[in-house]
Amino acid sequence: MLTLEPLTPAPPETVAAALADVAALGSFFTLPIDGTGDGWRPVRDAYATGLEHLVAERAARYGTPELRIAASVVQLGHACRLWAPLLGCVVVHGVVPDLGDLRQRTDGPGLSLPEPRGWWAPCGETLVAVLYEQVVTGHLVPLAAGLRVKVATGLLYGNAASALAEAARDLRRARPDLRDSIAWLAGELLGTGKLRGKGEFTRPDLAFRRRTCCLYHRVPGGSRCGDCSLDRKRPSSRG
User: Fold this and answer.
1) Domain layout of the chain by residue ranges
2) What is the pLDDT of residue 225?
3) pLDDT digits over 183-222, tens only?
4) What confidence score (pLDDT) does residue 37 get?
5) Could you tell me the CA-to-CA distances from 233 to 162, 185, 211, 217, 229 in Å, in that order?
6) Is the CA virtual torsion 42, 140, 27, 220 positive or negative?
7) Of all helices (H) and strands (E), which one includes residue 161?
8) Low-confidence ranges of the chain (pLDDT < 50)
9) How much is the pLDDT for 125?
10) Cβ contact 96:121 at 8 Å
11) Cα angle vertex 103, ends 52, 69, to 5°?
12) Which helix H or strand E contains 112, and what residues bound it?
């Protein structure tokens, strides 16, 4: 496991300013400094139960008895909420927020940090390794281990790759001047660890085709997503 100790800490006010700035890019980029009062809990406590409160709510909303579908979509949305603010802060501000003490709402998927800690972004392979550890090793692996329903491992990390690609596309649309940095970083992450082989960018605008299916098309009235490994019919709003 990569140690973060050699990284150079960034001033708390710099991390807070970066998070506040990228929050303007959309809801998935929003990671407020909060979460120390009622209504919040350490996200690792939620991982221990497989985010079951969100899975149950999503299954009821979709009207499906297949909890694995709800678990897949919840995990995909959670991955988006991890990747988006991290990529935004790194590419736009050169700052890596520390997600180690992440909090989650007790009544929903919203995330927050109790305080603004982080590091100045390193370069090259070190940056890729740090971001992979922050999101995949630090959060998505323990979430996968805590799921109360069986979901294929390849599907879960296909979701992680799809979420990364979606965050990168959104960031590219907002900051086309940084498109080369965004494409490089997202491409390198897609070739790392559990993300390797789960999908690829198919066009310079970061259109993505994944190699697994999130199962959303199996819910009543559902459809195949735009990056689905199956034959595409029409875009969906699985959110």
Assistant:
1) 12-218
2) 61
3) 999 999 999 999 999 999 999 999 998 878 766 565 666 5
4) 78
5) 18, 30, 16, 10, 11
6) negative
7) helix 153-174
8) 1-3, 223, 232-239
9) 94
10) yes
11) 25
12) strand 111-112
User: What SS3 state is found at 232?
Assistant: coil
The type of residue at 118 is G
To the nearest 10°, report the CA torsion of 59, 65, 69, 74: 20
The 3-state DSSP class for residue 233 equals coil
Residue 143 vs residues 44, 57, 93: alpha-carbon distances, Å: 8, 17, 28
Q: Tokens standing for 58?
A: 């999503």
* C-beta separation of 62 from 71 below 8 A: no
Closest alpha carbon to 92 in 100, 84, 81: 84
Which of 96, 87, 89 lies closest to 184 in space, CA to CA? 87
Query: What are the CB-based long-range contacts (under 8 Å, 24+) for 200-209?
Result: 201/165, 205/169, 205/172, 206/165, 206/168, 206/169, 206/172, 206/182, 207/169, 208/161, 208/162, 208/165, 208/166, 208/169
Q: Is 158 helix (H, G, I), strand (E, B) or coil?
A: helix
* Single-letter amino acid code for the residue at 226: G
Give the predicted TM-score (pTM) of the model: 0.91
Query: Could you give the angle at the alpha carbon of 35 between the alpha carbons of 102 and 23, nearest 5°?
Result: 75
Distance CA 163, CA 199 (A): 11
